[in-house]
Amino acid sequence: MSSLFEPLTLGAVSVPHRIFMAPLTRMRSTQPGDVPNDLMLDYYVQRASAGLIISEGAQISPEGKGYMDTPGIHSAEQVAGWRRITDAVHAAGGRIACQLWHVGRVSHESFHQGELPVSASALPYRNRTSVRGEDGLPTRVNCPTPRALETAEIPRLLEDFRDATLRAREAGFDLVEIHGAHGYLLHQFMSAQSNHRTDGYGGSLENRARLPLEVLDAVVSAWDADHVGIRISPLGIFNGLDDTSGRPMGLHLAAAFAERGIAFLHLSEPDWAGGAQLDDDFRASLRAAFPGPLIGAGNYDLAKATRLVEAGFIDAAAFGRTFLANPDLPHRLRSGLVLNDPDLATFYGGGARGYTDYPAYDAPRTRTVTKA
Ligand code: FNR
What does the alpha-carbon distance between residue 336 and residue 341 come to, in Å, rounded to a whole number? Predict the structure, then answer.
């Protein structure tokens, strides 16, 4: 039986415990250029006691951007910004993976000089994203109907993932995590709801799984399987995608990931975003399909994380909102300390408030009782 507080090895990286920081988009990069900055450095260093930090999604290309002020991992300036962050996290004793992100249709033409965002198919759908409002603050707008990626564009997309992986290595990350979850581009290809293609990337389950697997192979070719993980959320409602038939897809992908011997599989569970709770049958099937390191996330508290790790369903637990609000979360969980509450109003965009000003726990001074 493993415990949350035991070490774990994920491919090339060993971690001292299994409480991870989930990827969290905070929309605070420097403009123009989507460049990681010193405020982000402070935020990540504060959380360096995580077994592993998984960075916020970093767009692999300008085309992969879908929200205001998210950082990229496709320019030299961005690499230099990330390098300062990874160096500082390492100096603080931590480890950090780069989440490689392409949003697909969860975007807006204002990020693409008026061009439409790309997706598996040109299907109208209802969802919103955040662009800069006239007051400079994020404002919510409808996502347009995307255009379908042409078959001939896929090699270029794979090349973008490869380049981003090379840049993440150069930027000093310990690992990369491909974002295959939450209704973004790779999930748009996986789901029969958003993928109506008639080429080799649409139709059958195997065809819909082709792009995520080709992306994985491209990323592995730019580093190696020991440094690559992937996040999926095969079931649930995310960004206008209600994937009710994701169960066989999740299991099919998990088996294909296992064959490739990747560093980890990261499962994002649906209930934090309005989906149903995952059942243990699915957890057991996923575990059987993927015997390697499995990270779970989604509405976890200490009790849920402990149960799932001890049952062997997962090997590590990633915390999102709780880590956002508690920079010293592993210490608090280990010692049973009270937790700060996250402030929803400051999740996305802005400055230090609600970002780097959550306090670490101050142990109350031992009261000295003096005898009268
Ligand atoms: C997220 N989540 C997320 N997921 C991801 O794969 N990449 C990302 O960039 C983000 N960004 C993000 C921002 C914010 C503010 C939130 C709240 C969530 C999802 C996140 O990683 C996690 O799966 C969920 O938050 C559920 O976990 P918790 O918060 O219940 O522990």
Answer: 15
Q: What is the pTM of this model?
A: 0.97
Percent of the chain with pLDDT over 70: 97
State which ligand 1 atom lies nearest to the alpha carbon of 322: 31
Distance of CA 263 to the CA centre of its chain: 15
Question: Which atom number of ligand 1 is nearest to the Cα of residue 299?
Answer: 30
For residue 18, what are the contacts with CB-CB under 8 A and spacing of at least 6? 2, 3, 4, 5, 6, 8, 51, 309, 315, 316, 317
Asked if the 2-346 domain carries CATH number 3.20.20.70, the reply is yes
Q: What are phi and psi of 249, to 5 degrees?
A: -65, -45
The single residue of 44, 125, 184, 300 carrying the catalytic annotation is 184
Tokens of 198: 């008639």
R_g (Cα) of the chain, nearest Å: 20
**Residue 332 confidence (pLDDT) above 60:** yes
Per the annotation, the verdict on 184 as an active-site residue is yes
346: number of Cβ within 10 Å: 17
Q: How confident is the model at residue 370 (pLDDT cuts 50, 70, 90)?
A: very low
For ligand 1, atom 6, the nearest C-alpha belongs to 23
Among 321, 324, 333, name the best residue to mutate to test ligand 1's pocket (greatest count of ligand atoms within 8 A of Cβ).
Answer: 321
Our measurement of the distance from residue 278's CA atom to the centroid of its chain's CA atoms, rounded to an integer in Å, reads 19
Q: Is the CB of 233 under 6 A from ligand 1?
A: no
Beta carbon of 347 within 6 Å of any ligand 1 atom: yes
Tell me the C-alpha distance between 312 and 315, whole Å. Answer: 7
